[in-house]
Amino acid sequence: MTPDEYCQHKAAQSGSSFYYAFLFLPSAQRRAITALYAYCREVDDVVDECQDPSVAQTKLTWWEKQIHQLYDSLDTEKPIATHPVLQALAPHILSYQIERRYLLDILQGMRMDLEQSRYLDFKQLEKYCYHVAGAVGILAARIFGQESPATAAYATQLGQALQLTNILRDVGEDARKGRIYLPIEDLQRFNVKAHDILSGQYNDNFRALMQFEYTRAQQAYVSALQALPNEARRAQRPGLIMAAVYHTLLQELADSDFQVLHQRISLTPIRKLWLAWSTWVWRWRHINFQ
């Protein structure tokens, strides 16, 4: 199995909606973004699959060293990359300006998952969202064809919108793992106890809390599109596909009255494919989330 095939397998195996955003890309861009996504899956799996936090930290440190080794050897005849994901990523680093610091920022997001399970306020949660999604968005925007510095602001904001949607969808699933990403100050504002979420108690207070968080996520989508220059929309169609898919999911969460404590709401593959195709062909011109 070649490094590119390994990354393709990793991406397909995850069953993520990101797959649909990559479908229509030219070959070189598709290989680059698939390698980046496979990297994100690899380091995320470290957190999800390691029962012992110290073992997970050791593995993340290994990844950090591998990244430094690769980047420090880029100006040599053969850059050093021992993992197939980094081998697949290496040829694209210079052509798409895949900066080292953003890969390390993503690693820091994984460490945050190991080191804390609660967030005091939205400012803290925003920082987490940047590390696990915003940094990814910035690199993805470069691969898709960043045409304006403003595109980075769009990518960061869109990453936050996607991550907030993930958080709202997975409230119940995360609670069963002992994690609550919703800010403590928000729970207090709506008189929702952590125990209520951890024990799966759905009530009016929880519904009001989720409506508040939904509005915040909705605004993140609006802000992302407002930051994206019109002339950059065509190049950023893969990101707009992700926005369309995840915003539709966000609406599904609201339509279910936020019944997320005991089920994982999702979109069907055919619906994701329709959203991807229609956004790629024509919706990118006028898509908005107002």
From TrEMBL:
<dbReference type="GO" id="GO:0051996">
    <property type="term" value="F:squalene synthase [NAD(P)H] activity"/>
</dbReference>
<dbReference type="InterPro" id="IPR033904">
    <property type="entry name" value="Trans_IPPS_HH"/>
</dbReference>
<keyword id="KW-0808">Transferase</keyword>
<dbReference type="InterPro" id="IPR008949">
    <property type="entry name" value="Isoprenoid_synthase_dom_sf"/>
</dbReference>
<dbReference type="InterPro" id="IPR002060">
    <property type="entry name" value="Squ/phyt_synthse"/>
</dbReference>
<dbReference type="InterPro" id="IPR019845">
    <property type="entry name" value="Squalene/phytoene_synthase_CS"/>
</dbReference>
<dbReference type="InterPro" id="IPR017828">
    <property type="entry name" value="SQ_synth_HpnD-like"/>
</dbReference>
<protein>
    <submittedName>
        <fullName>Squalene synthase HpnD</fullName>
        <ecNumber>2.5.1.21</ecNumber>
    </submittedName>
</protein>
<dbReference type="GO" id="GO:0004311">
    <property type="term" value="F:geranylgeranyl diphosphate synthase activity"/>
</dbReference>
<dbReference type="InterPro" id="IPR044843">
    <property type="entry name" value="Trans_IPPS_bact-type"/>
</dbReference>
<dbReference type="Pfam" id="PF00494">
    <property type="entry name" value="SQS_PSY"/>
</dbReference>
<dbReference type="GO" id="GO:0016117">
    <property type="term" value="P:carotenoid biosynthetic process"/>
</dbReference>
